[in-house]
Amino acid sequence: MCSSRQTTQKPDFPARTAPRVGSLRELDAAIATCRACPRLVAWREEAARVKRRAFRDWEYWARPVPGFGPSDAPLAIVGLAPAAHGGNRTGRIFTGDPSGDALYAALYDIGLASQPTATHRGDGLELYGVRITVPVHCAPPDNRPTTGERDTCRPWLARELELLRPALRVIVVLGAFAWQALRPVLAEAGWQLPRPRPVFGHGAEVLLAHPGGGRPLHMVGGYHPSQRNMSTRTLTPAMLRDVLRRGADLAELPARPHHGGPRC
Ligand code: SF4
């Protein structure tokens, strides 16, 4: 774990470092060393120091949380940021919090995950054809990164999508924050965004052309499986499954629901 005595880095650390890494493995390792956002570095380490009572025996990860899933995934899922006592504790994105419980259960139900639960790194979870990532890799207070923090973190996501690009066909975008954050990233990567700007919504779909002869990219919007959205039933497990299944279909991933059928 990083010591709180370490200083933060200059805000351009991601912009200087991300373009130089040559693989997702290197990228994930580089992300985990990032200390470019002073407020988020302080918050992630404070959460690890104070802890939640239920997790007092845990040694929190307390670092940036990289993406998770294979490097040749045709489907990417982009969320918001790690939770202070979820990914920031376990070191794996969407792992150990209610959002992750909902997301991985849905992925399992549609055959894209090896198990319905995600509790810790090393719990055996595998993803099939799916890579999950976030535009902000450190847990923010109140789950609200600033636009400055989002922009500082952007080069990590830009490089991740670049490395995924040979196989990437579809991005399922969970929430309006990720939808906004992706726009400049996709434009920088050469994909053409339609005008007028596509508006986020659950089930919104956009096809982005790649004028360089690259493969077009589908974007599918979906509500974020936050505890709030799930408890108010703004997003139900069936809605989440449907939007993920739509992404998987566009990515031409095989349908292979597990034997028990979806849970409600
Ligand atoms: S949010 Fe991103 S840029 Fe900021 S410290 Fe974390 S990994 Fe680095």
Which descriptors would you attach to this protein?
globular, binds iron/sulfur cluster, 264 residues, hydrolase, Type-5 uracil-DNA glycosylase, 9% strand, DNA repair, disordered N terminus, Uracil-DNA Glycosylase, subunit E, alpha/beta, DNA damage
In short:
The protein has about 260 residues and is an alpha/beta fold.
Global Rg: 17 Å
Question: What is the mean pLDDT?
Answer: 93
* CATH C-level: Alpha Beta
Number of strands: 5
The neighbouring-strand order within the major sheet is 2-1-3-5-4
Keywords: 4Fe-4S, DNA damage, DNA repair, Hydrolase, Iron, Iron-sulfur, Metal-binding
Protein name: Type-5 uracil-DNA glycosylase
Family: Belongs to the uracil-DNA glycosylase (UDG) superfamily. Type 5 (UDGb) family.
Organism: Streptomyces anandii
What this model shows, in words?
With 264 residues, the chain is an alpha/beta fold. The chain contains nine helices and five strands, in the order H-H-H-E-H-H-E-H-E-H-E-E-H-H. Mean pLDDT is 93; it is low at 1-5. A hairpin with an 8-residue loop joins strand 4 and strand 5. It has a five-stranded mixed sheet, sandwiched between helices. The chain is 35% helix and 9% strand. The protein is globular. The chain has helices at residues 13-17, 24-31, 38-50, 87-90, 98-109, 147-164, 176-188, 227-231, 237-250, and strands spanning 75-78, 130-133, 170-174, 205-208, 217-222. The structure holds iron/sulfur cluster (SF4). Iron/sulfur cluster is lined by residues 14, 31, 34-37, 40-41, 64, 136-138, 149, 152-153. Residues 14, 31, 34-37, 40-41, 64, 136-138, 149, 152-153 line the site of iron/sulfur cluster (SF4).
